[in-house]
Amino acid sequence: MVLSGLSKSLSSAMDKLMGKKIDKELILSLKNDIFKSLLEADIQFDIALQMADNLHKRALSEKTPVGTSRRNTMINIVYEELTSIMGGVQYPLNLSKGKTNVIMMIGIQGSGKTTTVGKLAHFLKQDKWKIGLVCTDTWRPGAYDQLKQLGDRIGVDVYGNPEEKNAVKLASNGIKQFKDEKNVIIVDTAGRHKEETELLKEMVKLQKKTKPDEIILVIDGTLGQSAYGQAKAFAKITNIGSIIVTKLDGTAKGGGAISAAAATSAPIKFIGTGEDIKDLEKFNPKGFAGRILGMGDLDAIIDEVKRAQIDLNEDRAMDMMKGNITYTDMLELFDSMNKMGGMRNLLTKLPGGISNSVDDNMLATSKDSMKSFKSIIFSMTKQERDAEVKLGKARIDRIARGSGVTPEKVKELINQKKVSEQMIRQMTKGKRRGKKGNQNNPLAGLLG
Ligand SMILES: Nc1nc2c(ncn2[C@@H]2O[C@H](COP(=O)(O)OP(=O)(O)OP(=O)(O)O)[C@@H](O)[C@H]2O)c(=O)[nH]1
Ligand SMILES: [Mg+2]
Fold it and tell me: 374: part of which helix (H) or strand (E)?
């Protein structure tokens, strides 16, 4: 598995959270363990430090939402921070239908450019793109033959001319040849040169001439920390749109190249995981972080924390239990009803088994009512939304005009807030006396 070392050391760091009280000391030791694991995987020092610090701060300050455990909240924080250093979200290639897209592949010698051109062509061909490959490498012996062989294997046309020694000419001739019949042209460039500055100059010229829609920097995943300087050098002179990290199969140093992406502010879009044409994977930071954390039940844990976060934190829950609901709470309620399978889910977050006292018929929600209620709440001032402010006739009329409803509808909402507060008070009182809450209470009012 890619980055298996990091995976192992992070998992054993997380194991320490099992069955222990998660206090300041444990959080500090988790932070230190994770920082060490990141450095061992060759993640760049500043990035590792930043992640460890963020993690530490969040672990100390973030409350555990009702409905999940402290341990799961910690796991979620580690997962989110790891995802963030991997680039956060997945980005697609910058290709448009109805035009000829030009991709230029750059990187130093042996990084895996030519192999990756073949892999990418194979990948895009499966998505029905018509592809042409252009060899502009005038330095590597047999460069054209290498690309031609790859093209033949996957059934893709290749342009090149081993006699021509001008890379820019090769690029423009190749693009000319393919521009009418192909919709993706991938330009392979040289990696070796007389010296590195000459190579970089050639890339600048090629970029000017070919005006690529996307420049992809190929970074060798086995490089470790030195990938950072290399990525920076290319980023300085060319407009890098994305990164492909190669050779992530069987290297413990992959973190170096992965964190090098930060030097270019371009996202990693693919990773190379073997020599075969099929060994190219779309890079999805969330999935990748998940695999590194390598916990079988990770998805379920993250899902549980997300659901709990959307709903209530402990303080709000306790306040609501006393029957203090704000209009902002009602907004959240409406949203969570939309997103997360409704009221029942929200009520299960309240302590005391309140949800058992609620009849399913009461939970049927009118979407129209909810929509009007939301726009009414949006027309209120922040203070009206968040604090106990009595709404007089003038304000009711103003809010009704602002939200395009009748004043009666505003009064309906005000009434429903009162009714819901009473209902919660009754239910919690009932619970405290060991009785069941009032079955006929007017929760249905709140729910439209
Ligand atoms: N294991 C593994 N090997 C790879 C991967 N990608 C490329 N290689 C190997 O790396 C070596 C160099 O690959 P090339 O594609 O020729 O590299 P290049 O960047 O085009 O090299 P130059 O044209 O000389 O600059 C080859 O032996 C490839 O098989 C990968 O993802 N995994
Ligand atoms: Mg090559």
Answer: helix 367-378
Position 131 scores a pLDDT of 98
Give dist(CA 240, CA 238) in Å, integer.
Answer: 6
**Mutation test residue for ligand 1: of 188, 275, 276, 283, the one with most atoms within 8 Å of CB:** 275
Burial class (CB in 10 A: 0-12, 13-18, 19+), 60: exposed
Question: pLDDT tens, 402-434?
Answer: 888 999 999 988 988 887 788 777 766 655 444
pLDDT tens sequence across 27-86: 999 999 999 999 998 998 999 999 999 999 999 998 888 778 888 899 999 999 998 888
Amino acid 89: pLDDT: 84
3-state secondary structure of 192: coil
CATH number for the domain whose boundaries are 312-446: 1.10.260.30
Q: Pick one of 1.20.1260.10, 3.40.30.10, 1.10.600.10, 1.20.120.140 as the CATH number of 4-89+293-304.
A: 1.20.120.140
Measured in Å, residue 85 CA sits from the centre of ligand 1 at 26
Q: Which atom of ligand 1 is nearest to the CA of 188?
A: 20
